[in-house]
Amino acid sequence: MPVRRVALIFDDTARPETTGVYCRRALEGLVAVEHFRPADLERVPRTGFDLYLNIDDGLRYPLPADLHPAAWWAIDTHMDFDWCLTKSHGFDFVFAAQRDGAVQLRDGGITTTWLPLACDPEVHRKHDVEKTFDICFVGNVFPGQRADLLRLLQGRFRNSSVGRCYFDEMARTYSASRVVFNRSVRDDVNMRLFEAVACGSLLLTNDLRENGQEELFRDGVHLATYRDAEELVDKVRFYLDREAVRERIAAAGRAEALARHTYRHRMEALLGEVGRKLETASARSDRMNAVAAADPMNRVTTSAMPGPVDQGPANGVSTQNNAGDLSYFEFARPELLALIPQSARKVLDVGCGAGRLGEALKARQPAEVVGIEVVEPAAEAARARLDQVFAGDVEKIELPFADDSFDAIVCGDVLEHLRRPEDLLCRARGWLRPGGRLIASIPNVRHHTVVRALLDGNWTYEASGLLDRTHLRFFTRRDIEDLFRDAGFTIAKLEAVPGPGDEEWWQRGPQSEVKAGRLHIGNLPAEEAQEFYVYQYLVTAATAGPTRSPPSGSSTRT
To answer: What's the whole-model pTM score?
Structure first.
């Protein structure tokens, strides 16, 4: 499904050289693109675009929950990873400029693609100017190793240039320098790496091979690297004395940058991946609709997923409509792992996906882990990690578990996808040993984004999120309490997971007011007000009294 019209979201007022500026120039040659600043988010049309693309600009703001499909290119994972992880939960597609940042986001439950930074050949170009500087640095001189090394270089090589400049002036400075110095802040593969190389001068950078540099530019072929201050000084001297070697590497680096590492290359890759995944999702939806038309009673069941609430492709939600992509099943759910007692020796994971949660549990403690998974390929992958796996719909298949079989049972984002979750809980209660625990994660339909949409007359199902189209049941905090009480459980612990962008509200402490868009409610008990800012509840429940059958015709409020 090709992406033809893009709403591009980034701020260009604080930093004129922000990445979004280059992305916009590249996209204008590929698709119809319209730029919106963060202050304009409420005025962004909710229809008419194939993609809402947010480029990290260093500012902290969430994307409105009703902009879909949405993609985010996270640039500064090395500067504020916690915020990047929090913000990522609001997107269907996530890209990260740093390879280690992409790995961290994936470890945090976000399906993330590494998309490095790049150069703009119209800006970062070789100027026909005389080489007037032995060495230069363009950028901010942050305290620490960068500042220390710059002082060292300026003391040894007097013919140097250090300072800030942008666009054409920056390219001229690079072009006029025999060697361009780089020391990234936290081993990030930064913009300077691509921009200086594209200007045709030799870049001498700290060794970044652990963060993917060798997959982009090779040491001694396209640029040069150093590991410490002594090697830095030695290499500056070496390349200043060997013009032919220096210029040969610089020319090869420039050719490589123009051939593979421009912003047009990056935007083509991003649009291509998004388009392929949208096409795959559309094909899956068509197949599901065809099955549903043939069998109206057909249902879709989730299994393990990372992060708060079903976030779709960006977060790897494990549902039957994701059956074609096993990456959706490959998340360990650390927030659920933390709730499983370390004394548990036999654990049941309902909706185990590919078995990553159980694998992490078995690595943490001696435990036998049994899984249930509706998607057969995921169940097959789980069999290599867990002790036993049953494939099938948990509401339909016969399970051979005797009473008092398990120390803990996990239902990670499962109950909202069942016709009768109370029945599963009653069965699970019998399977638990005395003192056992049932762990569950459940989305909160009272979150302000849902209420705000309802005030506007919308209850629109989506591919992911709180109104995921595969959700059959909806819960507030009180509904969750009623559900577990009716099934014979006592909730020992109910943890609130803030929604994307809601952290600031929580950080301000107890409040009695809810104010989000058109939604404005005052004079609420603080406990009730906070429910509007809970995206998901994590439940730890214990059995309460003798096992009992589910109430006849019971249901929770929606």
So the answer is: 0.56
